[in-house]
Amino acid sequence: MKKVLAFVIVCVLIGVGGFIFFKRNHETIIVTAAKKIIDYLPAPAGQEEEMRALTDIAKAFLTDDGATHRIMLLLQNNYELRPTGGFLGQFAVLEIRGGTITRLDIMDANVFDKQIKSDRPAPPVLAKYMGIKKWKFRDANWSPDFPTAVQDILHFYALKPSNDPHFDAVVAINATMLNRIMRITGPISVETKSRQRGKFTVTFTSEDTAWQLQEAVEKEILLRDEAVAHAEAQAEATGEHYKEPRDENGKKIRRVKPWERAHRKDIMKDLGKEIITRLTDPKNLHKNVPALISAILAGVEEKDVQMWFSNQALQEKARAHHWTGEVDTQWDGDYLFVVDANLGSLKTDRHITRTIEHTVDFRGLGAEINNAAAGRMVRYKTADLKERIMAGNYRAPGPLATTRVTYEHMATAPDWSTSDYHSYTRLIVPAGVTWLTREWFFAPSVDTETFANRTVYGYKFDVLINDPNFPHILPTMLQYVLPTSITEENYAFKIQKQSGTGTIPFRLTVITTDGTRYTYSTDLTHDLTVTLADMTRE
User: Fold this and answer.
1) What own/partner pairs with CB < 8 Å and gap ≥ 24 does 107-112 have?
2) How far apart are CA 195 and CA 253, in angstroms?
3) DSSP letter at 241?
4) Long-range contacts of 529-534 (CB under 8 A, 24+ apart)
5) For 42-90, what is each residue's pLDDT tens digit?
6) 9: number of CA atoms within 13 Å, CB side?
7) Whole-prediction pTM value?
8) Which member of 103, 314, 374, 473 has the lowest number of beta carbons within 10 Å of its beta carbon?
9) Alpha-carbon torsion, ordered 209, 212, 213, 215, to 10 deg
């Protein structure tokens, strides 16, 4: 059991440590720390079933059977949301033989993409809105179905001839898992330096360490690059001699030296060492161990960690606990999965909050009416439909569902990491659905495709920062008719939560044929099922 949980903790520490552990010589400190922590088991009570599942999965990789077990760890930055949880900035290849780590290589996805020649065109959305012609590794997690995305990821990995594309497991870990770990250690201060600022101290808090770390590593470099590039362009345009730009204090902004760029992540190593030191402090192990195990289990349940296994028995075991990030194609009731993809190339999701409302009217009433004076920009699938709805005599031929997702941009101004929010969003709903009206989506209005037995509606929208003509709170709405097989007598609803979106306020409303309203409200942190019996009658 101790060896098994050591393996689980090793994977998570390496995973969140894509922001921390960049060199192979850190492998020993991670393994040593994990084994030291495991000496203080048992794990917290009340989580035995999940622990048994993790144990069974991990045993498959720790058996001394003479085989080398290969794991790919995907390090997803969910401040730049993508379908499986976040932008795929880095990945690691981990090999285990006889329960011992024999290989740990961590790679930058952008660097890797320069080493391969793509054999696939980019998905149409990425081609249209981002100008990407060829699909490569860093954008390979485009499918909202994690097992499907894994196959695309492994395809691009194999395009480098020296790479072996056969893996026993692929595990995706979001950047914000680091925040969960830091809630255990508490704030950590690390001294660092740069050519521009000299020596200075960064204090990482438990609130948002993942973001503070990104800011410490990237901000100064990007701003200096931008200032120098602007000065160079200005000199070229005017024909004048290049003059070094200055910061707000009048200090000259120096070009970024290669050694600075290469060592900008050194602060991560110091932070990582202190995290390990605190987690393994003998005086605190009695409370750190249960907290760490709980953090890992919570991350798995809330989809900050997702798993795929080539062994079908292991895949089924993980699927039974909803750890595989799959689009549920077996559920035969009402269904919703909202999937956002940040197309702005910045970390704007840090400032975006979402709410989701889903209403089902079994009377077929309640079609949304356009009201330009009130700022309602409702559009209709056909002119005839618009005429009937506006006249007030439209009744849907089945249950009328309204999905409303409201986005609020909390930033007050653009900066080095934040812009207006540009998203391509997909609503995955039951098969046989027909959409009728929409709000705030731009041409070509609503894209329609299928995934297995699901209908997928996609649309592009933007949420601007402090624009008086375009509010920073944006309601998006899609109305559609559900299949008549979904009835109020057997009504059951499932909503799947997208990895990387944090906590989302959610409200479900059902109106029966006699006009009775039932409601259910919660903070969505994981996949959820609701029946009419679970709801409150108003």
Assistant:
1) 109/137, 109/138, 110/138, 112/137, 112/138, 112/160
2) 10
3) P
4) 529/331, 529/492, 529/493, 529/494, 530/492, 530/493, 530/494, 530/495, 531/491, 531/492, 531/493, 532/488, 532/491, 532/492
5) 555 666 777 777 777 877 877 778 889 999 999 899 999 999 999 998 8
6) 31
7) 0.89
8) 374
9) 160
